[in-house]
What we know:
With 418 residues, the chain is an all-alpha fold. Helix content is 69%, strand content 1%. It folds into three domains: 1-56; 58-167, no CATH class; 197-414, MetI-like (MetI-like fold).
Amino acid sequence: MTATITDHDAHAIRRAMRTGERQRKWRAFFLVAPLALFLLIIFVIPIGSLFQRAVENPEVIATLPKTLASLKGWDGKTIPADAAYAALAADLTHSKGSSAAGGLARRLNYEIPGYRSLVFKTIRHMPLTAPDGKALTDAEIRDQLVAIDKSWSQVPFWQAIASNDTAYSPYYLLASLDLKQNAQGQVVRAPAGTSAFLDIFGRTFLISAIVTVLTLILGFPLAYWITSLSKRRANLAIICILIPFWTSVLVRIAAWIVLLQREGLVNKALMNMGITDAPLALLFNRVGVYIAMTHILLPFMILPLYSVMQSVPNTYQRAAISLGSHPFAAFWRVYVPQTYPGIGAGTLLVFIIAIGYYITPALLGGASDQMISYYVAYFTNQTINWGMASALGFLLLLGTLLLYSLYRRLSGRELGLG
């Protein structure tokens, strides 16, 4: 006897399947939701805030609203109308004694050096009054402002105000790339000597790349040697590698200062062995930065390499040698390709950590050895220029993400996935 499924039964089965699928989706959602919320709060929102800070431009539009309104339609080539002078005097009078004046002066000073002194000098004379106590005409206000400082009769100072008529501006992002907008709004290269951030970015990536190569050169044979040890000795070697993680970075840098100074242990050892006749300059230059960063970041290279090398069978290399291959050729052509995932993970990890280094170059390097993180800290702590600091940090993050995506694409092709 065969059972037949009625339309009602089929509908009930489909409904039960839909209910089960919906329950599985909700279960998966609740399992993933805490992690997604964590990433949103810790990563996405701060990155969005960083980008917002990099393009925010509220100082001029909030402090000089009447002036900007009076400059609407201005050709930007000649001195503005007298009404613009009257509006400027009114805005500066209103901002006198407030914190907005400091923000305005600081922002305009980025456009033209010396603008800060001009703003505060003019504010000190506010409000403008006539000798007889009568109301001043726009022309008289213009004459008094020019008498306070002749800069108010020069077009570039008015162009700096007119170019900041929006709440958001690419100024900081462009400045981070040694670019600027001219009076016509075109993006042009900043004058030579006024900015060097492209060189600093290049220096940052160069130092990070060299440190990455040094850690790979030192870490690969060490990781390979650890895999040849017994399990007990390998664990002991890994513990010795991990010991520096238990020591503060500042302590390790201080130790390198002691070791690398002219009368330090390194120079004394080199001189005692007859390698050098005089102490070498190992501090406050690029050499000290390379040595300390390589030492600090070496474990980040060894651990990924060791984890991959552990899973590589030695039988492949032995088989190649037994078939007549030279031991080095077998090692290079058979063993090394199997460690590419570890090499890729280690180099990526070390490089990303290295480009964000600040304290090591600051303490061991010279003026020409500072990386971009130094200037992010400088604009954050000393000049209080959050816009510039955010722009530099955002571009550094963007460069890191681009390199990571390139690595993912290349590694995918290597594995036949792309």
